[in-house]
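Team,

Forwarding the record for the chain on the shared tracking sheet. I've put the sequence and predicted structure together so nobody has to dig through attachments.
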Amino acid sequence: MPLLDKHGRTIVDLRISVTDRCNYRCVYCRTGNDGAIFADLSFAEYLRMVRVFVSLGITKVRITGGEPLLRHGVIDFVRELAKLRTVDGEKLDLAITTNGHLLAEMAQPLVDAGLNRITVSMDAVDRDEFTRITRVPNGYDSVLAGIRAAKRVGLAPVKVNCVLLRGFNDDQIVPFGRFAREEGVVVRFIEFMPLEEDRVWTPQIVVPLAEVVERMSAYMPLRQIDHGYSETARRYVFEDGVGEIGVIAPVSLPFCGQCSRIRLTSDGKIRTCLFSVREHELYTHMLRGASDAELAAAIEAAVAQKEARHHIGEPGFVPPSRTMVHIGG
């Protein structure tokens, strides 16, 4: 029996944050120097919860943060996840989202442990602009080395995600197009969402999908290619077939009707949407001695309450109860 919400959507994709700590302090994400505010669980505790999710029909698991590669033991965690099998007996699709700073030395061990895919968050391909955004000196070269290492060990196509803010880094659109072609990566632009600690989001800061495509097409014409039913990005390739970009457009082109995701925070709470104003307990049930069957029932009850859609930009919109770094990317 698939894991269904009340709107008939099948939930197959679990995003699990293993920490809300990060070694970057990106100015659009974090207000200042504040670090983690939630205690990380042990990997054994995360693993038990993931096993229950998988028994209910989850087929894809993405490890996020914060910065997940900061967690000692994350490679062993990937190795344990790789041993799990879906209800159909298949291997899980295992992915990680990372800022890439530590990736160069960890790419091969992650692949050896069973990782299938990787996404690197990178908001500029200009060194000075990258430093201004991340507030970390010399980070650009580390991230570039990580991307190249990931390609070298077989994690291609590496996806590189860039959050665009008008007047902040939208001058990077065409340079990222060149980067996609030269580095052989898939660049995905993400419309800025109201998930930052500073709460500065306005509709005017968003660079919408149509504008991204128009500006990139002025550099070199694009043609759209197919995307999966529940895939979040609209995909494009350049006219000569070299280089792919995508645009994830939750503001201008919401994809809520095809959402297949559920999230587990680093402190063991279920979030049914990035923009949920409430969370559902799971780890608390474990602490009270719940059986796997009782945990499964708690997951099913949470999924049953999954929101139909977000309400970004609508009158009366209420920001989520946590910001992005404390939810999980």
